[in-house]
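Weekly structure sync, notes
Attendees: PL (lead), two postdocs, one rotation student
Agenda item 3: pending single-chain targets
PL asked that the sequence for the first pending target be pasted directly into the notes so everyone works from the same version. It is reproduced below exactly as submitted, 358 residues in total.
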Amino acid sequence: MNVTGKLIIPAVALSITAFLQSGLIVGAQQGKYVSIYAKQEVPTNLARFRDSAVNIEFDYPKALTKVADSEKDLIVKLAGVIDQKHVEVKLTKLEGVTDLHLAEQMVSSNFQKGLPGCKPVSRRDIRFGKGLAYTGAEQVFNFSVGDDIYSARVVLFSNRDQSYMLTFIGTARDSAVAKSVFEQVVASIRQQSPYSSASRVQDAGGWSFSKYNDAARQVSFDYPEGWKLEQDPGKEFEVKFHGANKAGLGAELVVTRLERDPAYTLDQFFDTYEKTYLKPLQNYQKLSSTHTAFGVTRHEGSLTSSTFTSEGHHFRHLTAFFAEGKYYYAVALTGGIWSEREMRSVFDRILASFKITE
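Predicted structure, written out during the meeting:
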């Protein structure tokens, strides 16, 4: 396989079109994610945690204060008394762990081995954050400390290809108090600088871009200048661009669409695509999955980063799925061994430029 110049992507880019046309989404399960909302709080009762190094911020009750702790990879620990109940909140970076499924297994094993009498109570997939921008796994464990039974509510999520763990701890009998703090923090979490911010739109490493407009003037977006356009006149809407970065490492950009079925969510849309086309790839690993808004016309969508290998070569695959009007849109950038920063900045620039006027 040639990873310079025109890159022959192994089944991935073309499979987006095949997937959109296949109707496989019909088999997706509905209602997979539970959305987390917080009760409306008086703003003066809340404080805000910010950390530019991890690009995360969230709101929390002012009754909680920062507590020093020597725990490895701990970003912040908050503790205090709310309604006469002690509550702790911790945000931890899971260094070197990019697969959330692996992280979930690791956390469950560590909790049950390291905490006396620890037992899993429940697990669910949740959608949370400002604008419901994140998806992740929530696990609840009970464990013993002396004569008391404590409850730990753990949320695992990714932010810019890095995994994090939010932990909420209180006594099991006071779980309602801890749950209200959990909802406040988790519902408010957000990136300090989202993908579509002006600063990121301009940060494309000196790349130049051209503008694509479809024949009906309904869809427009930027693509790297000099990349070769391929369009299949036999398909309703599919455009592909082949090119390379300045180091000569090839990549392929594919944009396609399909009439949408409002009965299915974007999560179901991507989950079925991932199961059908990505997971069978050699050494496939999903690094992150984030819900965000992008484009000139502000499309709410799902943005996913993954890697795989083919014929001994390493590839990075970035995908964005969103719904607009009567269509699902899919955007994919697959490339060879580009730096992560360069590929993400180019993809961010492309997504930020999308304008759809159906």
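Discussion points:
- Confidence is low (pLDDT under 50) at residues 1-9, 24-31, 194-203.
- The first helix runs from residue 12 to 22.
Action: rotation student to compare against the earlier draft before next sync.
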